[in-house]
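A favour, since you know our structure tokens better than I do. What I am after is a single protein written out in full by you. Could you add the entry underneath, on a fresh line?


***
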Amino acid sequence: MSDSTTQVVLHIWPRQSPALSFDPQCVSALFYLQYSIPGRFSLAYCANPDLSPSGQLPFLTHGFHSAATLPSIIKYVAHMPGARDVDGALSAVEKAQTAARVAHVQSDYGDLVTHMSYCLHDNWWKTTRPALVSVLPVPQRYYVPNRLRESHRERLEIAELWNVPGVEQEEQEERAAFGKRKKKKSSGPDKFKKVFERERVLEKARAFFDIYAKVLGDRPLFHLHNGLPTSLDLIFAAHTHVLMNIPFADTLITSLLSDSYPALVTHAITVQAAVFPDSLPSPPVIETGMITGWQSVLSWPRFASTGERKDSSRPDEREERYSVMRWGFAGLAAVALVVYTQLFGVGIEVAIVSGKDVEEEVELEEEDSDEVMAREVDEVEAYES
């Protein structure tokens, strides 16, 4: 089957209404595909980043091909036949500037959105973590959220955006025994330090927003070529969409953006209207049937029915063969374990005891206890005399 007839599927984190997804990279990929190849791809909400070749979402599948990370997805889609050249109307200099600014947006704006979602204490415990837990099965919901948070930690530490306290951290919580928490009030210098750290984050955000507010000016888009958005518009608007549509408990950067930079917020609304016009339907969503956590840990072999075997392609048959081989290996290991237990293991003896034997044993134990008590009484009388 050729790639031209196979389905393009974009796998992204589930939506957090009204946001299209709680990850800016996923929204960026969705914006780009919907604008570049509308009606030619499907959407699959995925809650297992381990399915991606890079271990992160989003990723794209198209027949035997796959593309992970946003730059790889954009590059793959741009070379598809019939895809819209998003930056085709730009000059060579403008294309170079756009590429540099897109990298800047993904780096700095991505850090600001990640800081809001994963770093601020109140947002993590009241917004991001509950959203992740709601879409993850057992047992992934117990370790995947913390693993995702730790994956962003090093990058945010380099950007000096990690460990900045939230408003509710004026009283630090220390874990005590048996899972209870006791509160330790912060001293005066600590409170001033926390206020300073939050102000430092706002200064970084102001410096970033000032650049793109100046680039945008009074225009609805960054480049007014035929009134169509460019890749810079799509990716910048995707980050703004996440920041403005997720109900964060701590609105540190969100309040700054909405109050001081309303033109950037309007820009995101304009781009989303161009990407999802009323004349175009939204991409169809594939019901992947998210498997439970234990099914993902213990994958059971699936044998196709007779009708499925007739229409199955070579990759399906190969996967079935590998599945049978895996279970054959598991059976061989089980047989080896039984043989080893018989040869070197500790034997287990099973004794069948009747009710009469139990009664006799109880009587013997009672007689032994009477003899012990009588002996102790004699010893006490001898000691007193």
Remarks:
- The CA atoms of residues 111 and 381 lie 86 Å apart.
